[in-house]
């Protein structure tokens, strides 16, 4: 038995075999909800670096699985215990599904709850995701989209936004201090530049692609440095921009082999490097740890209260996402091709419900 008012079938893009293209086909629409679930009619979904890891089989994803963990939409049905949302609400999907709420992490500090090891899974990673006309999310992990924020902006915030935001939160910097971003001109990096500047930080953007360097400039990094100059020159330029000290903290967003080592090198003595990128191995020369006392901290997304805080910050400071728009789920292969070309600047975004997007634009134009 299905959900009232919801069709029995929907279009979706699934991973059905690792290292193969998505299969775009009609599949059953979710037909039941647990007490804390929301059913969203997806409006916009976007592509993330982790989607490539899912497709490669690296994340242990059960197949078939609907792709994309960056999605947003309108609430069309709710579980019996949901009280914080109502039908018609605009919601950014939370990634975690059904934390156990009894382990050390769930009962510990708020900023660690999303590390629950007993979770049912993550949307679009080990559970069905947003490249579909409908998706199920956990209401307790999802966030209300402020009226001023478009669906096209909200979808990439579900992972790219909250991941770089979480890294900045972990850096614990104060206004006036310097943060360096290694990989500043990518999907996460260009958001990090804007977030950091709006927080009052001085931003050093480092990238190794022409497209990335330009996007870092457009995202108003105070200093932009080409990583292709080589480690010694990059370190020299960062120190020149920081009165000889180096960055107070550095976020590593690039998964290039030498990115983590470069990030530590541009960080000041006793400073912090936050590792966000997910390469097969993170390699850092021992001298950075021992002789310069660089602390390295891994960072994975952020808890729900930070997601809502981020969305409110996006609205308040008019944070923008550089988007490459594709209209309809059947256009996803073109998006994947662009992402694999290395020429994409910003985020690849799929407009799942074009009519709704136009109505949303009209609504925001009147507000």
Can you give keywords for this protein?
11 helices, alpha/beta, 367 residues, single chain, 7-stranded mixed β-sheet, 18 strands, globular, 6-stranded parallel β-sheet
SS strand fraction: 25-35%
The oligomeric state is: single chain
Structural class per helix/strand content?
alpha/beta
The backbone outline, from C-alpha atoms, is: globular
Terminal-residue CA separation: 39 Å
Largest sheet: number of strands, sense, barrel closure:
7 strands, mixed
On the 0 to 100 scale, the average pLDDT is 96
Structure description:
With 367 residues, the protein is an alpha/beta fold. The protein has helices at residues 49-55, 104-107, 151-171, 187-198, 210-218, 231-241, 259-265, 286-290, 304-317, 332-341, 354-366; strands at residues 9-15, 23-28, 37-46, 65-66, 70-78, 90-92, 96-97, 121-122, 134-138, 143-144, 178-182, 202-207, 223-226, 247-252, 267-275, 295-298, 323-327, 347-351. The strands form four sheets. Strands 3, 5, 6, 9, 10, 17 and 18 form a seven-stranded mixed beta sheet that branches. Strands 13-12-11-14-15-16 form a six-stranded parallel beta sheet, with helices on both faces. The chain is globular, with a radius of gyration of 20 Å.
């Amino acid at each position: 038995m299905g959900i009232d008012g919801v069709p029995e079938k929907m279009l979706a893009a699934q991973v059905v075999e690792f290292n193969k293209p998505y299969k775009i086909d009609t599949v059953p629409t979710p037909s039941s909800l647990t007490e804390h679930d929301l059913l969203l009619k997806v409006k916009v979904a976007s592509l993330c670096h982790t989607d490539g890891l899912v497709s490669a089989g690296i994340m242990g994803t059960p197949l078939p699985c609907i792709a994309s963990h960056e999605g947003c939409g309108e609430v069309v049905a709710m579980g019996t215990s949901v009280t914080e949302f109502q039908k018609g609400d605009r919601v950014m999907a939370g990634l975690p599904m059904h934390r156990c709420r009894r382990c050390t992490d769930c009962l510990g500090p708020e900023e660690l709850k999303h590390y629950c090891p007993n979770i049912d899974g993550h949307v679009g990673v080990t559970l069905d995701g947003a490249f579909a006309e409908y998706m199920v999310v956990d209401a307790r992990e999802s966030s209300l989209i402020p009226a001023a924020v478009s669906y096209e902006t909200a979808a990439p915030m579900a992972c790219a936004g909250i991941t770089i935001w979480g890294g900045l939160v972990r850096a614990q910097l104060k206004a006036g201090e310097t943060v360096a971003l290694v990989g500043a001109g990518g999907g996460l990096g260009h958001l990090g530049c804007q977030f950091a500047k709006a927080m009052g930080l001085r931003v050093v953007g480092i990238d190794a692609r022409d497209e990335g360097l330009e996007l870092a400039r457009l995202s108003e990094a105070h200093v932009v440095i080409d990583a292709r100059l080589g480690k010694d020159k990059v370190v020299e330029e960062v120190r020149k921009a920081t009165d000889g000290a180096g960055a107070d903290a550095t976020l590593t967003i690039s998964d290039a082999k030498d990115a983590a080592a470069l990030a530590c090198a541009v960080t000041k003595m006793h400073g912090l490097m936050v590792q966000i990128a997910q390469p097969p191995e993170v390699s850092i020369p021992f001298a950075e740890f021992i002789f310069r006392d660089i602390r390295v901290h891994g960072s994975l997304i952020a808890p729900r209260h930070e997601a809502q805080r981020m969305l409110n910050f996006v609205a308040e400071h008019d944070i923008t996402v550089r988007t490459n728009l594709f209209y309809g789920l059947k256009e996803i292969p073109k998006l994947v091709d662009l992402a694999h070309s290395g020429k994409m600047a910003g985020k690849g975004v799929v407009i799942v419900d074009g009519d709704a997007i136009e109505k949303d634009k009209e609504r925001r134009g009147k507000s």
